[in-house]
Design brief:
Largest sheet of chain A: 8 strands, mixed
Largest sheet of chain B: none
Shape of chain B: rod-shaped
Shape of chain A: globular
Distance between the termini of chain B: 66 Å
Radius of gyration of chain A: 24 Å
Helix content of chain B: 55-70%
Number of helices of chain B: 1
Oligomer: heterodimer
Strand order of the largest sheet of chain A: 3-2-1-4-7-6-8-5
Structural class of chain A: alpha/beta
Strand content of chain B: under 5%
Number of helices of chain A: 19
Order of helices and strands of chain A: HHEHEHEHEEHEHEHHEHHHHHHHHHH
Order of helices and strands of chain B: H
Strand content of chain A: 5-15%
Radius of gyration of chain B: 24 Å
Helix content of chain A: 55-70%
Distance between the termini of chain A: 69 Å
Chain lengths: ~500, ~70
């Protein structure tokens, strides 16, 4: 009986400590960014300006497409080496008229590809453009973008220089959240993009394996695109990730240039973010299943099949599972073996504190401009309650004094029951924060209650919100929910930084 | 850029360069080199920043261990 009990405690201990795996993976990912100062692709770039076809998928973009074309043709790039292909996905507004006017204004630099039957999703739209581009001899490189993104003037030339290395098949840029003025959600996303793009993709450069080319800025060499069939995958919700994997599995490199900057407008509400990220997360589930023969298989592909890349991928993909497992195990141990649970709880949250400090402060230094816009959201990323737990585990005496004084002030008598309930709450919080974040989304369109949704995200955390969306993606994929390509709503409020 | 000025272009390189491409102003390459130098400097500074942040975090951990009981 004692051996059995020890075994159970051992399993529960392992499950709690497994909750630290995503944290340690994140720490390692940020730690190897320093190596990017040496292991980057800049040593292999050269002045290279291939004739570039820019594919712009557009559906009812009449209000913004004219300005987008003007900006693209005025990029710092050799004249005559750039042509914009607007793929009009059966727009019902004045998009065709605006594009035709721009064709007259910029002769030879703009082309209009009209689809009479639209609404099948971005991948189908892109394929219509790619079909025409690859049928012509003009393009040596193809840049796929979104209709509303703003390229900094030198962004394209910073991307094409990498294609001078014939081993490179695709290049992506740093997408920054550029809404003006940004609201609280835009700021959270702005900070997230430092960690998920500027930081994580540099780490992926070091590993030599890229997880995903940004959908709004992906440059392909013609030879690479043709090698993967000249088409974008239409069978999933993660066409960008599929293209990235196919490029690398064909034996070419995918490179991130963090100094090539592209500004994009991202969702301003939880509902919009939920729709967008649910699509991405479901796509990641599909990628994980489709490429199951690659994971942890160095012999299949030395880069995508590497142990480190797989750990980075799965710690994000399985983050909700780690959180729920750690939380549940702590709760069971609370009743079965409190001293053990208390020790494990401290271990987990001290690791959390160290990783949080390092990742947050380092992220701020990677992109100081965005850091100035988003520092509050950067610090609040794990949520207010998680920060209180971090504070408690790091400086218990300070926290205890404040808590005791606070209880006296509120007239709550300090009792064992209260302390136990508080501890149990802290144990549950790892998983519970996802539930609160989901509630914030539900409240967003409930009349007057909507004013609670933003404060709830600050309390629960933006990180747990992303975990809740990943969990929802598992459920949607398990249910075989319909694959809908919901277009992210844009209002055209993105602008270049001053 | 001076698109109408036919400048000989001996410097242009790249795997898919075609002879009939329009000529490019040599100033373009000076700009590209300067940009590359700046970007490489930024990447080198990332290592310095990382070490500085790591030092701060380690200092805080040591502070916690030795000063707060």
């Amino acid at each position: 009986m004692s051996i059995l009990l020890d075994g159970v405690y051992g399993v529960l201990t392992a499950l709690v400590l497994a909750g630290a795996i995503p944290l340690l993976a994140s720490l390692y990912q940020f730690a190897i960014i320093g190596r990017h100062s040496i292991h980057n692709h800049y040593t292999k770039v050269a002045d290279y300006s291939p004739r570039c076809a820019i594919v712009v998928p557009a559906w009812n973009e009449g209000a913004v497409i004219g300005a987008t074309i003007d900006r693209l043709v005025s990029l710092t790039y050799p004249p005559g080496s750039l042509r914009v292909y607007v793929v009009d996905d059966a727009s019902t507004d004045d998009t065709p008229d605006v594009v035709k006017a721009k064709m007259r204004e910029h002769p030879g630099a703009v082309a209009h590809v009209r689809r009479e039957q639209g609404g099948q999703g971005k991948a189908h739209t892109l394929n219509a453009g790619l079909e025409q581009i690859l049928a012509e001899d003009y393009a040596q490189a193809i840049l796929i973008i979104d209709a509303d993104v703003i390229f900094e003037r030198d962004a394209l030339s910073k991307m094409t220089r990498h294609l001078a290395d014939p081993e490179v098949g695709a290049v992506t840029a740093y997408i920054k959240e550029g809404s003006q003025p940004p609201n609280w959600m835009n700021r959270f996303i702005g900070f997230e993009y430092i960690t998920a793009q500027a930081a994580a993709r540099r780490a992926q450069n070091v590993l030599g394996a890229m997880a995903c080319l940004a959908g709004g800025a992906q440059l392909h060499s013609r030879v690479s695109l043709e090698a993967i069939g000249g088409r974008i995958d239409t069978s999933s919700l993660a066409e960008d990730t599929f293209t990235t994997f196919m490029t690398q599995l064909e034996g070419r490199k995918a490179v991130f240039d963090g100094n090539a900057v592209v500004w994009a407008e991202e969702p301003a509400e939880i509902t919009g973010l939920w729709k967008q990220r649910l699509r991405w997360a479901r796509g990641n589930v599909q990628v994980t299943k489709r490429y199951r023969w690659v994971w942890f298989r160095h012999d299949r592909d030395p880069r995508l099949g590497s142990f480190t890349f797989a750990v980075f991928w799965f710690t994000i993909f399985l983050m909700p599972v780690f959180m729920i497992a750690a939380s549940t195990s702590l709760v069971i141990l609370f009743f079965a073996n409190f001293p053990l649970s208390w020790t494990l709880f401290h271990c987990l949250w001290i690791i959390n504190a160290v990783v949080y400090l390092f990742v947050t402060l380092f992220s701020f230094t990677i992109d100081p401009y965005t850091a100035r816009r988003t520092w509050v959201q950067g610090f609040m990323f794990p949520g207010a309650i998680a920060l209180l737990i971090i504070l408690y585990t790091c400086v218990p005496p300070l926290f205890t004094v404040v808590l005791r004084e606070g209880m006296v002030w509120l007239g709550i008598p300090p009792s064992h029951l209260f302390i136990h309930v508080t501890i149990l709450f802290a144990y549950i919080w790892l998983a519970g924060s996802m539930l609160v974040a989901w509630c914030a989304k539900l409240l967003e369109h409930r009349g007057k209650l909507r004013i609670l949704s933003a404060p709830l995200i600050y309390i629960a955390g933006y990180g747990p919100l992303l975990c809740a969306i990943t969990f929802a993606a598992y459920v949607a994929e398990a249910r075989g929910a319909e694959m809908k390509w919901d277009k992210t709503e844009k209002t055209g409020k993105v602008a270049l930084a001053a | 850029m001076t698109p109408d000025t036919p400048i000989p272009d001996p410097t242009r390189t790249g795997p898919q360069y075609l002879q009939d491409d329009p000529p490019i102003d040599p100033a373009w390459y000076l700009l590209a080199e300067e940009t590359l130098r700046r970007d490489q400097h930024f990447e080198r500074m990332l290592l310095v920043k990382e070490l500085a942040v790591a030092a701060i975090v380690i200092a805080l951990i040591l502070l916690r261990i030795f000063l707060i009981h």
